[in-house]
Every structure is written in C-alpha cells, then in structure tokens.
Amino acid sequence: MHQAPRNVSIQGFQGSFHEVAARQFFGAKPELLACTTFAAVVAHVVNGTADAGLMAMENSLAGSILPNYLLLERHAVRVTGEVYLPIHQHLMGLPGTTLADVQAVHSHPMALRQCGEFLDRHPHWKLVETDDTGHSAQLLAETRTPGVAVVAGAQAAAQFGLEILAPAIHDDPHNYTRFLVLERAETAESDPLADKASLYFCAPHAPGSLAAVLARVAAQGLNLSKLQSCPRSGHARTPAGAWHYGFHADVEFAEISQLEALLDDLAPVTEELRVLGAYRRGSMEEAMGAELSLQAERNGAQQSVLSARPTLEM
C-alpha cells in the first residue's frame, strides 16, 4: 500500500495487543476499526470498509491460530506485510486488590493459554474466556466487580487505571505473536522490495508428494520459515478414511526472481498453487527495539508527572 490507510480493521479493542501491533506498523494516524472476530476483520477488508486489516496468525507459546489460515485461503485478501510483537502478559485488578482477593480471571483464551504455568498454581481461580484482553480490562474498570482479575498487557492497565498484581506471568520470557497485514486482493499493489511470500498449495494424496514440494523449495535456495497443514475444504476423505490436506507455507528469498522460479518449479508437483501475498518480512529485533523505545517514552512521561508533583519541605 503506497498510500497510508485511512482505517485499519483489527480484532480487539482499546488496550489490546492488536492495537499495539497496528500502531507499530501503521503509526498513529489511521482509525482503528475494532472487531469482535477475525472473520469481521477480513470482511471489512473484502468489503472495502477498511483500507487494510491486521490479523494474528501464531504465538510462540500457544501456536498457530488455524481458523485464520482458513480465512486467508477462502477470502479475496492479499498479505502485504507482517508484524512481530513481543507479548508480555500481566495479571491486573482494581486498585487495592491483592492476589488473595482473586476468585476469577478473565481474558482471551490465547492469553490464558500463554500463562498456563502461573494459572495452574492457583487452581481455585475460575478462568473465564472473553473476546479480548483489552476489552476485559475495560469491562473490569467499568463494572468494578470484586474478586475479578484480568490477564492483559501493560498498555491496558495504564489506559483503564488497573494495578498489576503479578507482572510477566507468561510461560516464556521470549513470548511473541506474529501478525499479518491484509489488503483487498483486487486493489493491493505489489511490493518490489518483497523478500517473503505466503503460499497455499495442495499436493497429490500420494507417498512422497509433499517431499517433492519441499525438495524443490530447497533446490531453489529459498528458506521455508513456516509450514502449516489444514484440512482441504470441499474434499471428502479417501477410501482409507484419511483427510485431504492443503498447506500454507512461508518462504524467504533474496530476489523476487527466486519466487518466480519456485512457482514454475512447483506447478508440476501440486494440484493447486496460490500466492497469498509477497511482502517485506517483519523483524523481531525491530519489534523489540520499538517496544524499548515506547517503554522509555512511558517512563519519561511518568517521571515528568512525578517531577511536577509538589513536595513537602522539611
């Protein structure tokens, strides 16, 4: 997208990680259209009510979000970018709440899964799945329900006036989520600097067919960074009872000509082959650097507030 989007659809609300990722990629100007489902995110892009969309695809702890791969496969969208976002989950509650007061924990199911080890140490807590981390924090701030805590990011605590009861409760300190940027397939523009592509292909249901595809990827010198199988829609089981599968693959390359050569090479060994998008790969290092810069800005702002407060002279 050569022109900055006016609006971007995201799954989630104010204070969500989708909001943080969208601002990291697009900046502060676009209006964010909050959606309760990923299907709604895609629908906004397809219908043209959003210039672009942002959708989480996988988390380093919780794994792939399989329904979102099916959304890419079945709708007229094109992948035009990706974002890696470090995810730090915190347990938060109303001011004055202690861990001993907690009876229930509300959050998005993916967030709860990322904090399994911590939550398992409190088996008496009731885990309640919600539509969004940020929305959970907002509802707690509005309803002020006693005994309820929320798992969300620090940005949600700051925006809704909640206190962090237990910081960094995710299972792995190197927790991150990968998001894809989506545009309408009919109007998306190609990127001459693309160095990564998302493909969808189906190989014949026969021994060695997938190996033949992977061998050609290696022979062309591309790096296969992701391979995800999904049941193939519209195809019945084989006589032996096995499912037909399609595959989503991400490949990295130095020159676009490598991708073009790979597509030619794969045509004879696949039953279906589509490019879902070619784009510039995201950087985990840049994401961590952006996060550190944002944290420094927050710390600076907090220090300015503290410095401005009157002090008692002894």
Task: Describe the structure in brief.
The protein contains 10 helices and 15 strands. The chain has 314 residues and is of the alpha/beta class. The longest helix has 25 residues, at 284-308.
List the keywords.
314 residues, alpha/beta, six-stranded mixed beta sheet, five-stranded mixed beta sheet, 10 helices, disordered C terminus
Q: Percent of residues in helical segments?
A: 25-40%
Give Rg in angstroms: 22 Å
Tell me the β content.
Answer: 25-35%
Can you count the helices? 10
Order of helices and strands: EHEHEEHEEEHHEHEHEEEHEEHEH
Would you identify the regions where 5 or more consecutive residues have pLDDT less than 50? Answer: 297-314
Structural features, described:
The chain has ten helices and 15 strands. It has 314 residues and is an alpha/beta fold. The termini are far apart. The chain is 33% helix and 29% strand.
Question: Layout of SSEs?
Answer:
Layout (H helix, E strand, L loop, with lengths): L6 E5 L5 H10 L4 E5 L2 H10 L4 E8 L3 E2 L1 H9 L2 E10 L3 E4 L10 E4 L1 H6 L1 H5 L5 E4 L3 H11 L4 E5 L1 H7 L2 E4 L9 E9 L11 E7 L6 H11 L3 E9 L13 E8 L3 H11 L5 E8 L4 H25 L6
Parallel strand pairs: 1-2, 1-3, 7-8, 7-9
Antiparallel strand pairs: 3-4, 3-11, 5-11, 6-9, 6-10, 12-14, 12-15, 13-14
Helix pairs in contact: 6-7
